[in-house]
Amino acid sequence: MPQIVIEAEPGPLVFDTARAALVLIDMQRDFLEPGGFGEALGNDVSRLAAAVAPCAAALAAARAAGMRVIHTREGHRPDLSDCPPAKLARGQPSARIGDPGPMGRILVRGEPGHDLVAALAPAPGEVVIDKPGKGAFHATDLGAILSAAGIDTLLVGGVTTEVCVHTTIREANDRGFRCVALADACASYFEEFHRVGLAMIKAQGGIFGWVSDVAAFRAALRSAPIDQGEPA
């Protein structure tokens, strides 16, 4: 198996590309485009646009290397039966989950706003996880998919850094996965939250994982396999 090393903080990480997956979190129109749920909450959605090109670069590199790719989308059933009341009550009246918006009902599966941005559309065969919560493991089959594929390392990008990306990395860490946040492929509506969210991941010797960037990821994939020597 091809073993490669990615430069990261708090230190470099060696991983097997056959046992790694690129996970792109919630790069959805409702969060990234004007008129969606993110803007309805009063956020400047242009702040998230910075992550699209790095995510696209990471996606192209992972595909070229034959790595597994997983996309996630946060959203709910049309009848909202999987949306907790506390979450449903969030936001301004008439701009809440399930309400009509410029891109269809806000954060409802099957609506245009729930879909991923065009630049990051899944290729045939790539897994798309529809999740009702912040973390990608909660109430989904992501854990079973990763286990069946023998995945042990996740390279993670997406939005927002401190919410869905962070929650997914924390969930993954508790399940024994090694996680690398690709800093420039993540973004937040709040610059300080992005910075602190990444700092928390790599703190105390990597309490939740590693932090790197797309350039380092691409360089690792281009590198020659590490010589592991002959089996004992």
Structural descriptors:
single chain; alpha/beta; 6-stranded parallel beta sheet; two-stranded antiparallel sheet
Brief overview:
This protein is 31% helix and 22% strand.
Please, could you describe this protein's structure?
- The chain is of the alpha/beta class.
- The chain is 31% helix and 22% strand.
- The protein is built from eight helices and ten strands.
- The strands form three sheets. A six-stranded parallel sheet has the order 7-4-3-8-9-10, with helices on both faces. Strands 1-2 form a two-stranded antiparallel sheet.
- Helix 7 (191-206) links the parallel strand 9 (178-187) and strand 10 (210-212).
- Helix 3 (52-64) runs parallel beside helix 8 (214-222) and helix 6 runs parallel beside helix 7.
- The two termini are 16 Å apart.
- The model has no long low-confidence stretch (mean pLDDT 94).
N- to C-terminal separation? 16 Å
Number of beta strands = 10
What ranges have pLDDT less than 50 throughout 5 or more consecutive residues?
Answer: none
Helix and strand sequence: EEEHHHEHEEEHEHEHEH
Number of H- or I-type helical stretches: 8
Helix-strand blueprint:
Elements: E1 3-6, E2 13-16, E3 20-25, H1 29-32, H2 37-40, H3 52-64, E4 68-74, H4 85-88, E5 100-101, E6 104-105, E7 127-131, H5 142-149, E8 153-159, H6 161-174, E9 178-187, H7 191-206, E10 210-212, H8 214-222
Parallel strand pairs: 3-4, 3-8, 4-7, 8-9, 9-10
Antiparallel strand pairs: 1-2, 5-6
Helix pairs in contact: 3-8, 6-7
